[in-house]
Amino acid sequence: MKAIIFSVAMLFCFASAKAQTLDPLYTFTFTPDTITNAESDTLLLPVDFVSPWSYGYHIVMDSLSGTDTLSFVVQESMLKTGNTDWITVATGAGSANVRTRIVGQLMYGRRQRIIVNGAGTQSTRYRITFVAKKVFK
After folding, report:
1. Cβ contacts of 28 within 8 Å, gap of 6 or more
2. Per-residue model confidence (pLDDT) at position 3
């Protein structure tokens, strides 16, 4: 009986540990939003990366008015929490009706975010999808 209880307990522990890890492929689509003039939006990925990943951001922009110009800054943090240790690892820019892609060969940080910056007099709707693949060594 003790062996059965121990086996069930170990199975539960293994299942709980597995549920906290990521599959070899991770995809996340941020809620579409609109940038007006010189606003900025900071979008944090809702996951804790703990091993090497290659990644890409696919960005689609649609001009609602004005001359649109958006820039993008990808940052990483090595800490699980906090807001002071972000470093820039990639940048990109784009305009409406153009698809932009930002690709990283290897993610070293634990957390990642993308900052969307508007410029000029414009209103632009954007949609961002993040895709990452675990790098096995």
Report:
1. 45, 46, 47, 129, 130
2. 54
